[in-house]
Design a protein that fits this description.
This protein is of the alpha+beta class. It folds into two domains: about 190 residues, no CATH class; about 90 residues, Chitinase A, domain 3 (Roll). The protein has ten helices and seven strands. The strands form two sheets. The protein has a four-stranded antiparallel sheet with strand order 3-2-5-4, sandwiched between helices. A three-stranded mixed sheet has the order 1-6-7. Strand 4 and strand 5 form a beta hairpin. The longest helix is centred in the C-terminal third of the chain and has 25 residues. The chain starts with about 30 loop residues before the first helix and ends in a 5-residue tail after the last strand.
């Protein structure tokens, strides 16, 4: 019996491609149905209607435009070149599944409900997905190769003095110098206290430059650090060292993660094989200024559905 959608084995194909590593967020279980919902129902529908040949998939500029719009709504920024290519691949995988579902007539009773057609086509693929034999040696090797997922990262406690008026670098440096000298803080400054922030959180909140500088700072000293949104007066209080994970207590979790990864790879490979039945046409984006990190789609035609 097909696995329900809410379980890991019913996920859409992972957005992977030989020789490339997509951003980790693209491997989130429900991303294809949640974050890309608008993309699947709007861009896919328009492009499918525009193609006269059911074996031809047309990837027009609308795909990238819709992907960028949905991505910005979810993450408050434009996608990078790598992320945009990965989003296009997700769209392509779902378009293949949708057309295969129509060809197998699994749309009966689900007229115009695209998500269900894709889901039914994926369930047919799941029926042929088989988990290979494994033992603790294999799981341990996978665990070591994916340690970043299980190790407890180093964490940082720090304080930030925030001026409510003058936010210039000079004003913040004067404030930091006074605090280091033992002078009471400016009455116009507010103090924020942060506990147990890992590197990834620092990068997300302040940017990579700030995170690197804070982690290299001497504890107990007020410093002014540059972040992507300006200057910040901060004092590192404590560093909690990283703690490597042990395999045995996490064996069950590791086995489940390995299972999910292997099945996702098999599912993706099956979709790629189906994609070989289609001819892909890629249209150029409309003329106009383009962002430096957003690739234009060249006008091409291939015999395999790959970006």
């Amino acid at each position: 019996m097909p696995t329900p959608l809410a379980t890991p084995s019913a996920r859409l194909p992972a957005a992977t491609h030989p020789g490339k590593t997509w951003p980790s967020w693209l491997r989130e279980p429900l991303l294809h149905f949640v974050v890309l919902g608008a993309l699947l129902f709007v861009a896919d529908h328009r492009l499918f209607e525009r193609s006269d040949d059911p074996r031809t998939i047309v990837v027009g500029a609308e795909v990238d435009a819709e992907a960028i719009e949905v991505f910005k709504a979810a993450r408050s920024r434009d996608p990078s070149a790598v992320e945009l290519v990965a989003l296009r691949q997700v769209w392509l995988d779902n378009e293949v599944l949708y057309r295969e579902g129509l060809a197998l007539q699994v749309d009966k009773g689900d007229t115009a409900i695209r998500e269900r057609v894709i889901f039914k086509a994926l369930n047919l693929i799941d029926a042929n997905v088989k988990l290979p034999a494994f033992d603790d040696k294999l799981l341990r090797a996978w665990f070591e190769a994916n340690r970043a997922k299980y190790d407890a990262p180093a964490r940082y406690d720090f304080q930030e003095a925030v001026l409510t008026t003058d936010l210039s670098e000079a004003a913040l440096r004067a404030l930091a110098d006074g605090l280091n000298a033992g002078t009471p803080g400016d009455t116009k400054a507010n103090l924020r206290i942060f506990r147990g922030r890992p590197h990834a959180n620092l990068v997300l909140s302040y940017g990579a430059q700030f995170a690197t500088a804070l982690e290299a700072a001497a504890p107990g000293e007020w410093r002014v650090l540059a972040a992507r949104d300006g200057w910040h007066a901060v004092r590192l209080d404590r560093i909690t060292p990283a703690q490597p994970a042990a395999f045995e207590p996490l064996r069950g979790m590791v086995q489940q993660d390995w299972t999910d990864a292997v099945l996702a790879e098999q599912r993706s490979a099956a979709v790629r094989m189906l994609a070989g039945k289609y001819r892909l046409k890629t249209e150029s984006a409309p003329a106009g200024p383009a962002k430096a990190d957003t690739p234009k789609i060249a006008a091409t035609e291939t015999g395999a559905a790959a970006p």
